[in-house]
Every structure is written in structure tokens, then in C-alpha cells.
Amino acid sequence: MPNLKDLKNRIESVKSTRKITKAMQMVAAAKLRKAQEAAEQARPYADKMSLVMDKITSSDNVSSSSPLLTGNGNNNIHLIIIATSERGLCGAFNSSIVRLAKNHINKLKSEGSQFKILTIGKKGREQLKREFGENMIDHVDLSEVKKIAYENASTISDNIISMFLNNEFDVATIFYNQFESVISQVPQAAQLIPIEINSDKIQNINSISNFVYEPDEQEIIEDLLPKAIATKIFTALLENGASEQGARMSAMDNATRNAGDMIDKLTIQFNRSRQAAITNELIEIISGAEAL
Asked: E strand or H helix at 136, and its extent?
């Protein structure tokens, strides 16, 4: 049984930890508001980009010859892009993304397909390095980036497109967390190359809208394809940013509550031990007095 000094030191240690987790919770809450606004503001742009892409590709004036749109005719080598955080202490945020990616990888392996891994964020790389180290071909370090910008996504997109045009892979898929609320972040998988076209959405668009394009659709689609891929990556990074702060805020709130509960339990244990020590001292004093 620990003595009074040990219990007192442990209580002070847990109190210090509670101060740290509380401060981290407040910092995450402040960052969450900005990250959530950025993610929500990017969604309408991404939706419109998707709508325009769906509409243009349905036009009879557009040739479907671009490999970014149709693929290269193969489905053998997959590029798995896993976007996680640079820092930990955010609950199951990173592990949920990695778990979804692993399930996809295991499915590819069962089908006999090859795969390569590109990681964005240190934590995902750390979790995958031991098991899939030989399949990792590149890593994007965003630890020095204070605010995710479109240029960051564009750089990643240009690298991926260059790899695709050099026949280094056939299909590219990005894994990330979509922000829904502070306590809810949903792992998502979005195919980047070839770009997925929603046929149901095309029918709805054709029935309610008529677009006039200048210049012609073919020239627009050639220019929009790289931008559409970069937009998907940018949206994924923004959703990840908001999800990370939400997960960290929730995790630090739980840690703060747990620290408070532990302090209460240790304080009760300390008081009982002190009372027992006092009782023993009184018994010894009384016993000594009776002996005299």
C-alpha cells in the first residue's frame, strides 16, 4: 500500500496532467472553429466543381480520351494516399483512417492487385511503416505548414498526376476523415484517378439546366481535370484538419475528466490512509499510557 507521501506526489502529478490536457482542449477548441469554417466553405466549391465536371463529361462534344478521366485501361497497380495528422493525442482519428486503408489494401491483396502507398502526415506513416514499409514510395510532410492552402494540394496533385502519366500506377484513392461534428469524424475513401463521374447526377443536371461554354467543352475539360483532382485533395485535407481538431478536443476533454476522477479517488485513498495512520498512532499512545 503506498504511503502518504507517494499518494500526495501522485495527486500533484495528476493535477499537473489535468492542467495540460485542459489547456490542449482549449487550444483545440480555438483551432476547431477556424478549421471547421474552412472545411464548410470549401464544400460548395467542391460540389460545384463536381457538378461542372459531371455536366461537361456528359456532352457529346467532349472526347473521353483523357487518361485522367478514363484511366489507362488497367486496374493492376493502385496508389493508396493516406492523409493523417502530424501530431498525436487526438483519440482514434488516425487509427480509423489507417484501419479503412488497411481494409482496402487487404481487399486488393486478395484480388492479386499490387499497391503503392503515399502518406500525408507523420502519424499514418508511423502506423504503416512496419507492415507496409516496402510499399511506401513517398511521404508529404506538412508539419511546417500552419494553414492548409490550395497550393499544398496542388503540389501533391501535380506529383500524383506525373506519376500516373509515367505509368507508375493505374488507380489512385485517397483516405481521410470527413468532419461531421466534434464527436463524429467519418473515414472516407475517394477515388482521384480516374475521376469518378456520377451518372445519376448527370441525368438530373441535364433535366434542369443548360450551360453555354466558352471556350468549347473539350478545352475546358482538359484544363479542369488537374484542378478537379487538386480540389478533391484540398477538400480532403481541410476535412482532415477540422476532424483532427474535433477529435483532439474530444480526447482532451475525456482525459481532463478522467484526471479529475482519478484525483478524487486518490484523495479519498489519501484521506483514508491518513486517518488510518492517525488511528494507529492514537492506539500506540493509549497502549503506552496503559502500560505505564
From this structure: strand 136-140
Q: Which fold would CATH assign to domain 4-23+252-283?
A: Helix Hairpins (1.10.287)
Q: Does residue 83 contact residue 174 with C-beta atoms inside 8 Å?
A: yes
Contact 177, 98 (CB under 8 A): no
pTM: 0.84
How do residues 153-196 score in pLDDT, each as one tens digit? 999 999 999 999 898 999 999 999 999 888 889 999 999 988 87
Second CATH level (architecture) for the domain 31-249: 3-Layer(aba) Sandwich (3.40)
Instruction: From 150, 171, 188, select the one nearest 46 (Cα to Cα).
Output: 150
- Range 122-126, long-range pairs (CB < 8 A, 24+ positions): 122/84, 122/85, 122/86, 122/87, 123/84, 123/85, 123/86, 123/87, 123/88, 123/94, 124/82, 124/83, 124/84, 124/94, 124/97, 124/98, 125/84
Per-residue pLDDT tens digits for 232-267: 999 999 999 999 999 999 999 999 999 999 999 999
